[in-house]
Amino acid sequence: NWFQPHFPDVDRPVHIFCGPGNNGGDGLAIARILHGRFFSVTVFLCYTDGNTSPDFRANLERLPRLKELQITELHSRDPLPAIPQNAVVIDALFGSGLNRAPEGDFERLILHLNANAKNLVSVDIPSGMFADRHTAGTSIHAHHTLSFETPKLAFLFPENAERVGAWSVQPIGLHPGFKENLSVSNHFINLELIRSFIRKRKKYDHKGTYGHALLIAGSFGKAGAAILSARACLRSGVGLLTVHVPRCAYEVLQATVPEAMVSPDWNQYFFSKPPESLDAYQAIGIGCGLDRQGETATALLQLLEATNRPMVLDADALNLLSEHPDWHAKIPKNSILTPHPKEFERLFGKSENNFERNALQRRKAQDLKVYILLKGAHSCIATPEGVCYFNSTGNPGMATGGSGDVLTGILTGLLAQGYSSLETALLGVFLHGLAGDLAAEASSPEALIAGDLVGKMGEGFQMI
Fold this sequence. Notes:
With 464 residues, the chain is α/β, with parallel strands linked by helices. Helix content is 36%, strand content 17%. It has helices at 3-6, 22-36, 54-62, 104-116, 161-164, 176-180, 191-195, 223-235, 250-256, 294-306, 315-323, 341-348, 354-368, 403-416, 421-442, 450-455, 457-463, and strands at 13-18, 40-46, 70-74, 88-92, 119-123, 144-148, 166-170, 186-189, 212-216, 240-245, 261-264, 283-286, 311-313, 336-337, 371-374, 380-382, 388-391. Strands 8-17-16-15-14-13-12-9-10-11 form a ten-stranded mixed beta sheet. β12, α10 and β13 (311-313) form a beta-alpha-beta unit.
């Protein structure tokens, strides 16, 4: 059912390469069904040597023995088959149970398919790729991967982009209660999860109901970061917003974001001192366009020592923390840190691969008792309990300056409204990506700019 809309031409050759295990059995079942739907199917039984799984044997027996359905056995050292330019190649060599890198004949075949197949579809997982650890050896480089029930953890990391291609997930009939009873440490953020906790407004609510947020942002030449963050914060639904900026940004903030109050810093060009009192604010976001002056570092330390409420820390606030690791313990519990990969590396050190980085992210979230939102194609939120949530929204058009400032504004606004830190991170990252998807659809990923995200937040809320 997935295959036919993607490749509707029944005259196009379909070559299915089946390994000896259950993944090969899936390939044989696919061959039978596609043949029954009048596709031109050729099956290759690859290096089985008679050592096959019961699932493989059952599906092989069910395969009709008709001359229109070609079955070829590949033996060790046989010449590798030619792949027609217009063929769809289905990889059913190995599934997620693989425990070592392919070698010998299988490695040779995989390299052959990677080099010659123009449309390569993997069943469940690209053969040779590990589902839950780093893949260093040879694997299929699929154009499409059709997986079962849930995505594999490996699909969500950039190191596997060339291996997994465009992936999607289809149900295969697991019992509905099965997943509910599993103890898991990885979750995928979807609309159902967000709708389970988002709040509806009540008739007699007022601006005090939705909190007062403080954003500390901007420096000389970077007032735009403060504007983007402020606009996003307001669009997130916050009741009141104060933006603390250097004096050089005072007039432009008053003119471009009239809904916000502006608190001018004593310094003309950068953040040098927190506001006198923080009691009025339900949430504080800091870092967008901040700069890293010595006085700014001192002011950040003063802020960390002045409040025990969860904060949102981004950009130069994180860079300053990376320069002062002894300050990490001063970050209020349940704060939300939003590093991109380079900021994460500066904060916590380098990792050999994405799996190691994910383990480090979990560990640091637990150690510091904070939420670490690592930004990327599937932004990952690590919680103080060591659980990770991977986002499902967003697109490459969001890889543009200011997108992170918008996210910080959204998170600060949601936190001020009384959402928990976890709810804030989940809703914030999902809405941010959803607004990006709506903006890209309205124009294009190439033309998308950060301000477009703010403009689509309302439509995003309507969809949620």
